[in-house]
Hints:
Elements: H1 2-23, E1 31-37, E2 42-49, E3 62-67, H2 70-87, E4 95-99, H3 104-108, H4 124-142, E5 145-154, H5 156-167, E6 174-178, H6 184-199, E7 202-211, H7 218-231, E8 234-242, H8 251-260, H9 263-266, H10 273-278, H11 280-294, H12 302-314, H13 318-331, H14 337-348, H15 352-369, H16 374-389
Parallel strand pairs: 3-4, 3-5, 5-6, 6-7, 7-8
Antiparallel strand pairs: 1-2, 2-4
Helix pairs in contact: 2-8, 5-6, 6-7, 12-13, 12-14, 13-14, 14-15, 15-16
Amino acid sequence: MRQSLNHLFLLFALALCSLTAAANTTLTFGFEETIKSTILNEERIIYVSLPNGYKTNTSMRYPVLYTLDGKTHFKRVVGTVEWLSVSANMIPRHIVVAITNVNRFRDFTPTKPKSAGDRPAGGADKFIGFIGNELIPYIDKKYRTTPYRTLTGHSLGGLLTLHTLLTRPDMFKSYVAMSPFVRFDDNEIVNRGAKTLKSSSELNASFFMTLGNEPTLLPAYKQLESILSKQAPKGLKWESHVYDLETHMSTPSKTLHNALVSISLYAGWQLSPALIAKGVDAIKAHYHKLSVEMGAPAKPPQDSMNVLGYRLLGEKKIEESIKVFKYNIELYPQATNPYDSLADALEAAGKLTEAKAALEKAVKIATTNKTRNLAQLQAHLKDVTMKLTKL
């Protein structure tokens, strides 16, 4: 009995050590950098998160999402972007840059109201100069970026986001304002926006703004919404949503998620049923156009193309399914599943020699990368090889 108890105690101790070791594992999703700003005459701290695969896929370039109030929003933004890009495959993978605050009121406000007193305010143009002339060039030089940039801001950060759209519209491709404090300084941004938008003949950007259940901000917000409805320049894609169940502090998470999957920001990134119905040539043309717009390769999800291929195979459109699977291999040459799927379609077409070649390629990739489906691919290859020997 004592020996059994000692054995159980040893197992418990080992398990506890294992749990302790696991608990001490550090999970890293970003890092801190310091930039000396000549424009602001101070050091600025930023947080940077690189997307999954950044270090291994060295030929890939990525759009950049900049978020204000970095300490507050960094983890939330990184989590949302990673989920939508990696898990859901609804948007491209991003580099995320979060700008932390030094003097929020000074940097985010376009004007200095009388009520500010001795409090520093009205430094928005200077701060935007720092972003456009120092921060963005620094990020573009250090990391593999594309020209597609998004700026997100909440509350006073939303005010700055709107101000940037009105004064430096070419700096970012997309602007997301979450509960923007548009009533600041007697609705100055709204009144100025009416004049700026009216005088703009064209504005190639996307703007997504939201408000929670915020009665004090609603009148100025609705006024801005009305101005956009009547005076939005050609090329400006915009959306506005009021979330009655959200508060001023809860709008950011819902807003960012909805903005990133909206028609305004990443329209066409997902493989829609309408596009699928047009066939593989239309899909190729669509994603080529999207790649040009994004400044980086855009491609349909591997799984979606695989589903399309098998659907065509089930409909006995074998040659079309082969075409889809071959296109999927072009898109994802180091993935094993497209080769395996192509082999199924080639088998259905009676092209066993080609099916065997596809499976041999899949097995080679799986062996090199030590993927979990190696045994399954080997079994499929063995089956096709046996069929060939019987011919």
